[in-house]
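Protein modeling request. Please complete all fields; requests missing the sequence field cannot be processed.
Requester role: graduate student
Desired output: 3D structure, token encoding
Chains: 1
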Amino acid sequence: MDIADEEADGTERAEHGAGDDDERSVPAGEWEREPHPPDSLRTFGAVVQALREHAGLSRAELAVRVRFSKHTVESVELGRRMPDEEFVERAEVALGNTGALRKAACHLTRGEAGLAAWFRRWARLERKAVSLCTYECRLVPGLLQSEAYARAVFDGTIPLRTDEEMETQFTARMKRQAMMKERPKVPFSFIIEEHVFRRRFGGAELMRELVDEVLERSAPRNVTLQVVPLEAGLHACLDGPVQILETPAGQRLCYSEGQRNGRLISDRKEVRLLCQRYDTLRSQALSPTESRALLERLRGEL
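Delivered output (302 residues):
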């Protein structure tokens, strides 16, 4: 997913996010949209539009003054995009310097509570995907986590979260998980490193609960789980975790994640390479039957 658009905080993060446009080949401009624009974004956008019209400026003319594209101005006015600090400051000056935009910007919030900003657009794509592949080497994928495991992951996050924030994250995680049961005809493929299941996050009971949850969630016919055993050695996906999905229009997109960021990849050459790596890893990992046997054996050792 190599469409890198300006994100709300001014950094270049390639989030997905075509919303209703998911079923088409996604144009670059669509990646910057907010998933489900909250009222604060719509209200701020309406204020920008009102001030612009009062000043007798077109969107194109305001775009020149704030040094952003006309598309960005339109997206902000329609509440589809979180404006960054530079946009707010330049628009404030260009539209009368009343202080209204600076004050209004302090109350802006994003949509999709509980999801990291860089993940929201990918999460939205997931809900319409016709297939989803996931390779993980850090922790059990969110779609397969037990409740206790998910809470432990959030509890260990730095910076620390309040109880309310953690509950919001947990609710969002459970909502994502429901997608698997709601879409029984969509193929879900998971390839996970064995050491992920050997990393303790609690006592034996919690570990058994985690393995049971993974086995249950991977049992349906549309779900495939493969484990990369410790003895597999070097393999095709050593560069890190990756997710691959296919849109209803047949377009393949990828997502990779690191410390405090996520990257959506749509460049065809790069997507093709990541798909090749994933397909190769499938042949290097244990078969689904062998993988379930390994997890059952690990459970018995607890």
